[in-house]
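Query structure, 59 tokens:
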């Protein structure tokens, strides 16, 4: 099997996604309140997931 050349890019994007999610939760979650968010963070998370999938399957 050939090695995926984009493993580092995928790992970097996964790390960024994790950081974005943690920061987003810290900013928006309050005690006894369900997670609330705008369209911007959801769009950013979707874009990062799309890039991860793109580089993974392209590589």
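Result returned for the query:
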């Amino acid at each position: 099997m050939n090695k995926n050349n984009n493993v580092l890019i995928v790992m970097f994007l996964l790390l960024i996604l994790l950081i974005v999610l943690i920061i987003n939760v810290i900013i928006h979650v309050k005690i006894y309140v369900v997670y609330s968010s705008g369209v911007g963070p959801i769009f950013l998370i979707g874009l990062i997931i799309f890039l991860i999938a793109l580089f993974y399957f392209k590589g």
